[in-house]
């Protein structure tokens, strides 16, 4: 049962991060390889707000709003200029952005392992979730937040007019623009939402386990989860996260813990060979890369 | 009758190298239906696309000239602003969102019309194209060619346009469907007081619908006049209606041949 609980927690982490990859790719067809770094920046934003206030009910929402704003600014100041350029140029730009952010984080926050939970007075306790299975209270919150985020995203994309416009822009940006949709507004919104969800994941992980640059690795490991499911499918991101997390936990348990960082990328390679568009993705969407 | 759209000396290039339009000038009066005729590659579609605006992915830009709509300069503006000014394009291909339902295709529009006006226009579309009303929940990608054209016209109508640009209304459609669509379009035009600028390969359809027409070749306008004048022009008949003895050649070729004959 403990294994099942561990798989659920790890898949929730990957799912909360991978929805950002999927949203940006689905709407703007850009593979954002800086998503791990942006997630880490979200966690450091919490560290920053925690230095101003010890009230988590203020520090966390302010950090979340800052991450939303920063996501929109990344698009408006940088990625917007990639419109009309090759897909490769856009991907290389996100890689460069990621490297830049890593450097800036070290300059402003140092490379030391830090604990945002300490100034905020947050203590994670152990909670029994299944018979014979315990997880930390922050892990439980992460699982609940992931469920809420996915429910909200599904409802937003299916039922709201802005969600409908995002789906339209993803299918045919030119026609969307000709139907009166401001593409740059839509893209800025989707970058903001992606950075927000990634940052929430980064904040919750760092509150539970502390914060340093190794957080990027978790962000990178969520990318295979997104690709296994299909880069343009939110449902695929959920299932892909479950598959990658299950494989990782089981191999750590029964084979070798050192495989933890290797397994997701092994699955990624197998998937790229067998079915590059993922379990729930569309072949046409991948052809456009 | 006032002039609604004026295009003057319009130059467009693709990828900063390929010149597609070389000084197109035309005007459309309010309430008129105007057609643009021409062979493949003459610049008809590019003219409509330039009026409706380019996005970055097009790799195209207006390098010279002006597009004035009801006194407002629109050249180089993004498509969403142009749509909100009251110009809606029905493109030649990729004209609907295939993974959205029929109703979502009408709902997705972001225009100058408010909620009540949008609902009225959607009702108008369903009234004129009852087939769409019966298929509201069907994915647009599963529609037939004729139904797609109706939906494309419908979603342009929900944009609350004053000027509708239609690229190849009849292309790939059975004559009976074209007939149905043309009749509904005429009726919608009367209901909404629409002005229409259409590009049409079929000169027969164009002359039937339009009051005036422009003939384009090699990126420029080479002839214009009322539909009646152009339809009786022997060179136009030869080039676009295929009814003359000289077969289907370009207008310019025919005009040059005629000049030579006259000089001889």
From TrEMBL, chain A:
It holds the Pfam family BPD_transp_2. It is a multi-pass membrane protein. The keyword Transferase does not apply. Keywords: Amino-acid transport, Cell membrane, Membrane, Transmembrane, Transmembrane helix, Transport. InterPro entries: ABC_transp_permease (IPR001851), BCAA_transport_permease (IPR052157), RhesusRHD (IPR002229). Its main location: membrane. One of its GO terms (molecular function) is transmembrane transporter activity. It is found in: Cell membrane. GO terms for cellular component: plasma membrane. The chain crosses the membrane at residues 6-24, 31-52, 58-78, 90-115, 135-157, 186-205, 225-251, 258-278. Belongs to the binding-protein-dependent transport system permease family. LivHM subfamily. This is Branched-chain amino acid ABC transporter permease. The lineage of its organism: Bacteria, Pseudomonadati, Pseudomonadota, Alphaproteobacteria, Rhodobacterales.
From TrEMBL, chain B:
GO terms for biological process: L-amino acid transport. CDD domains: ABC_TM1139_LivF_branched. The keyword Secreted does not apply. The keyword Acetylation does not apply. Residues 5-243 form the ABC transporter domain. Belongs to the ABC transporter superfamily. This is ABC transporter ATP-binding protein. It comes from Pararhodobacter marinus.
